[in-house]
UniProtKB/TrEMBL annotation:
Pathway info: Cofactor biosynthesis; coenzyme A biosynthesis; CoA from (R)-pantothenate: step 5/5
Enzyme Commission designation: 2.7.1.24
Keywords linked to the UniProt accession: ATP-binding, Coenzyme A biosynthesis, Cytoplasm, Kinase, Nucleotide-binding, Transferase
PANTHER family in the cross-refs: BIFUNCTIONAL COENZYME A SYNTHASE-RELATED, DEPHOSPHO-COA KINASE-RELATED
Pfam families: CoaE
Gene name for this UniProt entry: coaE
Record keyword Cytoplasm present: yes
Family annotation (NCBIfam families): dephospho-CoA kinase (TIGR00152)
InterPro entries, per database record: Depp_CoAkinase, P-loop_NTPase
Protein name: Dephospho-CoA kinase
GO CC field: cytoplasm
Catalytic activity, reaction form: 3'-dephospho-CoA + ATP = ADP + CoA + H(+)
Length: 201
């Protein structure tokens, strides 16, 4: 892939979608791993068929779609099942990402991947951007957004790379702990930087 690619990541509740939308407003193509992850388990997809063959029909909704809550409960306390699911879906997600990057027409492309470093997908990008907030903010924002329990959110945070490790791997960092205006200014500054880097690559 000759195109300049920026990998955007951050812990749960850090504001990845908000930041991605600000880059999109600058005319940049966004490829979101979460959206692709839903596509690869859509009804009648190969991914969904493999999941049903492995876990049984109790992970299906009445209309034939994936019951995410039922699946989450099956893998939440079982690392081996979680590993099986990752090995099933990650190659499909990665392949679809590569296909979409090739179709991208903006001067650089933003790849939004929650587990960019954990799943080794930083190997696909030229530069990494981490959206950073405190763990306390992660818990508060996610609880407000998803109505999830604090226990579940903290378990998700524990399953992700630590804040310090993530920051140590980042080429660029945006702090999302302040006002919206500061966030917009940070995105515009990085957008200009990425335009320059794209032209050089």
């Amino acid at each position: 892939m000759s195109q300049f690619i920026v990998g955007l990541t951050g812990g749960i509740g850090s504001g990845k979608t908000t930041v991605a939308n600000l880059f999109a407003a600058q005319g940049i193509d966004i490829i979101d791993a979460d959206i692709i992850a839903r596509e690869v388990v859509a009804p009648s997809s190969e991914g969904l068929n493999e999941i049903v063959n492995h876990f049984g029909t109790e992970v299906l909704l009445d209309k034939g779609g994936l019951d995410r809550q039922a699946l989450r409960e099956k893998i939440f306390r079982n690392p081996e099942e979680r590993q099986w699911l990752n090995q099933c879906l990650h190659p499909k997600i990665r392949q679809r990402m590569i296909e979409l990057v090739k179709k991208s027409s903006s001067i650089y492309t933003l790849l939004v991947v929650p587990l960019l470093f954990e799943n080794g997908l930083d190997s696909l990008v030229d530069r990494t951007l981490v959206i950073d907030i405190t763990e306390e903010q992660q818990v508060n924002r996610t609880a407000h957004r998803d109505n999830s329990s604090t226990e579940i959110i903290k378990n998700i945070i524990k399953s992700q790379m630590s804040r310090d490790d993530r920051l140590s791997k980042a080429d660029d960092v945006i702090s999302n702990q302040g006002e919206r205006q500061q966030l917009e200014q940070a995105v515009i500054a990085l957008h200009r930087k990425y335009l320059t880097l794209s032209e050089k690559s």
